[in-house]
Specification:
8-stranded mixed beta sheet, 7 helices, alpha+beta, single chain
C-alpha cells in the first residue's frame, strides 16, 4: 500500500475517532453539570458540538420516583459557548449560556411533597441554612459571562387532595439576561427563584425561597424581561395576573438585589 495513502487513512481514522470521543466527552460534561445541580436523571438529543460551542435540542429533566408526572423540565434549546483554552487548563469559563425552558412542572404529590425539594441545589441550600456552623457542600465552580434565560410556561399540579390534580398554568414568557454567575448552585437557584416568584407559586406552595435567594445576590441582570405577564388558568385559581405581578414585584424588592 502506498505510504501516503496509509497516512491519509490513519489521519481520517484519527479524525473520526476523535469526533466520536469529543461528542461523548461533551455529552458527559453536560450531563454531569446538570446532575450536579439537580441530582436527577436527564435525557438529551440533537447534540451539536463545535470547536468552542455546544448546542443541544430536546433536553428533558425527569422527576424522581413518587411523582405521577414523568417530566419536570422540558428544555428544547440548550446552547453554551465556552473558552476552550480555559477548559483545557481546568477552569470552567462559559462565555454565553442560553437556556430555553418551554415548560417547568412543579408537583405536590399525594404526600404533600414538592418535586423541587428533591433537587440537589435546594437540598444543599436548605441544609446550609439549617446548620450555619456546619461545613456546607461546595457548589461546582463555573464562570458564566452571560446567561440568556427563557421560561415559557410554569405548571403547578397539586395531587395532595387526590386525582385528578388541581392544576394551575402560568404562561410566563420570561426572557431575561444575567451576568456574573460563579457557580452552578447559583444558576440553579436563579431558575427556581424566577419561576416561583414570577408566578406567585412560592406563597401558593409554601416553598421557602430564603435559602436560594441568598445565593443569587451577586447576580446582575442586564434587562428585566416579561415576568409580569404571568397568567393563571385552571381549577380553583383565585389570583389574577395583575395581583400576581404586584406580589412578585414587592417580594423581589424585599429579597433580591436584582429585583430592585
Amino acid at each position: 500500500m502506498n505510504k501516503w495513502l496509509l497516512v491519509l487513512i490513519i489521519i481520517i481514522a484519527v479524525i473520526v475517532v476523535g469526533s466520536i470521543f469529543k461528542d461523548l466527552i461533551i455529552r458527559t460534561a453536560v450531563s454531569g453539570g446538570v446532575q450536579a445541580v439537580t441530582g436527577l436523571k436527564l435525557e438529551m438529543r440533537g447534540l451539536h458540538v463545535g470547536l468552542s460551542s455546544v448546542g443541544i435540542k430536546d433536553l428533558k429533566l425527569f422527576n424522581p420516583a413518587g411523582y405521577p408526572d414523568k417530566i419536570m423540565v422540558d428544555m428544547p434549546e440548550f446552547y453554551v459557548s465556552y473558552d476552550l483554552l480555559g477548559f483545557l487548563s481546568g477552569k470552567a469559563h462559559i462565555k454565553a449560556l442560553k437556556l430555553n425552558l418551554s415548560e417547568f412542572v412543579i408537583i405536590k404529590n399525594q404526600n404533600g411533597e414538592l418535586n423541587i425539594n428533591s433537587l440537589k441545589v435546594v437540598k444543599a441550600q436548605k441544609e446550609a441554612q439549617a446548620a450555619p456552623g456546619k461545613k456546607k457542600a461546595k457548589a461546582p465552580e463555573i464562570n458564566i459571562d452571560r446567561l440568556d434565560l427563557k421560561i415559557g410556561k410554569v405548571v403547578y399540579k397539586d395531587y395532595s387532595r387526590g386525582t385528578p390534580p388541581k392544576v394551575q398554568e402560568y404562561n410566563l414568557k420570561l426572557d431575561e439576561h444575567y451576568e456574573n454567575i460563579t457557580d452552578l448552585y447559583s444558576l440553579g437557584s436563579l431558575i427556581i427563584v424566577k419561576a416561583l416568584m414570577s408566578t406567585g407559586l412560592a406563597s401558593v406552595t409554601g416553598f421557602d425561597l430564603g435559602p436560594l435567594s441568598s445565593s443569587v445576590s451577586s447576580i446582575t441582570t442586564t434587562a428585566f424581561g416579561t415576568a409580569n405577564q404571568a397568567v393563571n388558568v385552571g381549577t380553583g385559581v383565585a389570583e389574577t395576573a395583575a395581583e400576581t405581578a404586584k406580589e412578585t414585584a414587592e417580594t423581589l424588592k424585599r429579597i433580591l438585589p436584582f429585583g430592585k
